[in-house]
């Protein structure tokens, strides 16, 4: 086999292997990470578009897979949207991680205390293009501190 054909074949195998690894990582995060994970694309006018949400994120946010690709404004009710979006805008404007706490009412009338870390992802010009959100249930930790 000549060098050119071998080089193209190696590149294709590399892309294929890379794609498989990316899919595997996505599947692991989607199905097995207990924390709620969201990746949001920042658009003009502070529109935040869902690019990814893991299974727990979808469940606890009351979202469907079909909501991926929609904006936060299109998906969330106003009483959840406004305080949440304010935190995202802070992360975008300041370009730094933002941590906040929020109480979430679950369907079974239980309240859960969540701690969310928003991580802004910047492009090469320093402009925030994405925000990664990870929310962890800290209810038990909070109860232990009170007791």
From TrEMBL:
<dbReference type="InterPro" id="IPR000014">
    <property type="entry name" value="PAS"/>
</dbReference>
<protein>
    <submittedName>
        <fullName>Sensory box/GGDEF family protein</fullName>
    </submittedName>
</protein>
<dbReference type="InterPro" id="IPR000700">
    <property type="entry name" value="PAS-assoc_C"/>
</dbReference>
<dbReference type="InterPro" id="IPR013656">
    <property type="entry name" value="PAS_4"/>
</dbReference>
<dbReference type="Pfam" id="PF08448">
    <property type="entry name" value="PAS_4"/>
</dbReference>
<dbReference type="InterPro" id="IPR035965">
    <property type="entry name" value="PAS-like_dom_sf"/>
</dbReference>
<feature type="domain" description="PAC">
    <location>
        <begin position="94"/>
        <end position="147"/>
    </location>
</feature>
